[in-house]
Design brief:
- With 140 residues, the chain is α+β, with helices and mostly antiparallel strands.
- It has one domain: Alpha-Beta Plaits (2-Layer Sandwich).
- Helices cover 31% and strands 31% of the residues.
- Strands 2-3-1-4 form a four-stranded antiparallel beta sheet, covered by helices on one side.
- Strand 2 and strand 3 form a beta hairpin.
- The longest helix has 18 residues.
- About 11% of the residues have low confidence.
């Protein structure tokens, strides 16, 4: 056995940083907030076989589908989304609306989000509406 091997392992282990353990997050009550889910939805405006969703169509969709399902509020941002076509390996871009809202962590709230996603799929013949959901605390 190489006499330097154990010493070199000891030196290498001394260079490694032990994984830091973060303090557990405070409970929502500890910071005077309520449990929430932060939802982010991604609505691509490109529609196969026709022109992109217009501003007027988006506003109508907002008024007929988003606001009735999320009456306590939401934020919409203009963005540009991108992805790679797996066949051509070409980057595809499209204008996108990003909706952000904070809702109680309940089945009813999740159902409201799903209704909005399905309404956009149906109205604009979309395959999917991206969504992320993160737990958190909110104070409004």
């Amino acid at each position: 056995m190489n006499k330097w091997l154990p010493a070199s392992l000891l030196l290498l282990s001394a260079c490694m940083h032990p994984q830091e353990q973060a303090d557990p997050p405070p409970t929502c009550a500890a910071i005077s907030a309520s449990p929430t889910h932060l939802y982010t939805l991604y609505f691509g405006r490109s529609v196969k076989g026709r022109a992109d969703v217009t501003d007027a169509e988006w506003l109508d969709f907002r008024d007929r589908s988003i606001t009735p399902n999320l009456p306590d509020g939401y934020t919409v941002l203009d963005a540009t989304g991108a992805w790679m076509n797996p066949r051509s390996r070409v980057t595809i871009t499209e204008t996108t609306k990003v909706l952000v809202t904070s809702l109680p962590p309940t089945q009813d709230a999740f159902a409201a989000i799903q209704r909005v996603r399905q309404a956009y799929r149906d109205r604009f013949n979309q395959l999917l509406i991206g969504m992320t959901r993160q737990p958190g605390c909110a104070d409004f």
